[in-house]
Amino acid sequence: MTQDTQARRRATLFAALFLIALLAIGIWVAQAISERQALERCVAERRRDCGEFGAKLPDAPTRDYAPTR
Hints:
single chain; mainly alpha; 1 helix; rod-shaped
Protein backbone atom coordinates (compact mmCIF):
# COMPACT_ATOMS: atom_id res chain seq x y z
CA MET A 1 0.00 0.00 0.00
CA THR A 2 1.21 3.42 -0.79
CA GLN A 3 1.19 6.25 1.66
CA ASP A 4 -1.60 7.94 -0.30
CA THR A 5 -3.85 4.90 0.06
CA GLN A 6 -3.19 4.71 3.79
CA ALA A 7 -3.98 8.40 4.21
CA ARG A 8 -7.26 8.00 2.34
CA ARG A 9 -8.24 4.98 4.44
CA ARG A 10 -7.42 6.84 7.64
CA ALA A 11 -9.44 9.86 6.51
CA THR A 12 -12.36 7.63 5.59
CA LEU A 13 -12.22 5.90 8.97
CA PHE A 14 -12.17 9.21 10.86
CA ALA A 15 -15.06 10.53 8.76
CA ALA A 16 -17.10 7.39 9.45
CA LEU A 17 -16.42 7.62 13.20
CA PHE A 18 -17.37 11.30 13.15
CA LEU A 19 -20.64 10.56 11.35
CA ILE A 20 -21.49 7.74 13.78
CA ALA A 21 -20.87 10.06 16.74
CA LEU A 22 -22.95 12.79 15.10
CA LEU A 23 -25.79 10.34 14.50
CA ALA A 24 -25.69 9.14 18.12
CA ILE A 25 -25.84 12.71 19.41
CA GLY A 26 -28.74 13.47 17.06
CA ILE A 27 -30.71 10.46 18.27
CA TRP A 28 -30.05 11.41 21.90
CA VAL A 29 -31.25 15.00 21.32
CA ALA A 30 -34.37 13.83 19.45
CA GLN A 31 -35.24 11.44 22.28
CA ALA A 32 -34.76 14.17 24.91
CA ILE A 33 -37.00 16.55 22.96
CA SER A 34 -39.66 13.85 22.62
CA GLU A 35 -39.62 13.11 26.35
CA ARG A 36 -39.85 16.82 27.14
CA GLN A 37 -42.83 17.25 24.81
CA ALA A 38 -44.61 14.30 26.41
CA LEU A 39 -44.00 15.79 29.85
CA GLU A 40 -45.26 19.21 28.75
CA ARG A 41 -48.41 17.66 27.26
CA CYS A 42 -49.03 15.79 30.50
CA VAL A 43 -48.59 18.91 32.62
CA ALA A 44 -50.80 20.91 30.25
CA GLU A 45 -53.57 18.36 30.82
CA ARG A 46 -53.21 19.05 34.58
CA ARG A 47 -52.44 15.43 35.32
CA ARG A 48 -50.58 14.52 38.50
CA ASP A 49 -48.86 11.33 37.32
CA CYS A 50 -46.45 12.96 34.88
CA GLY A 51 -43.32 11.47 36.43
CA GLU A 52 -43.69 8.28 34.39
CA PHE A 53 -42.21 9.88 31.26
CA GLY A 54 -38.68 9.64 32.59
CA ALA A 55 -38.31 13.36 33.08
CA LYS A 56 -38.15 14.49 36.68
CA LEU A 57 -40.40 17.28 37.80
CA PRO A 58 -38.84 19.75 40.21
CA ASP A 59 -39.63 19.09 43.85
CA ALA A 60 -42.18 21.32 45.50
CA PRO A 61 -40.60 23.89 47.81
CA THR A 62 -40.95 23.15 51.49
CA ARG A 63 -42.79 25.70 53.57
CA ASP A 64 -42.01 26.60 57.14
CA TYR A 65 -45.50 28.01 57.63
CA ALA A 66 -49.07 26.94 57.13
CA PRO A 67 -50.86 28.83 54.36
CA THR A 68 -53.93 30.72 55.55
CA ARG A 69 -56.92 32.10 53.75
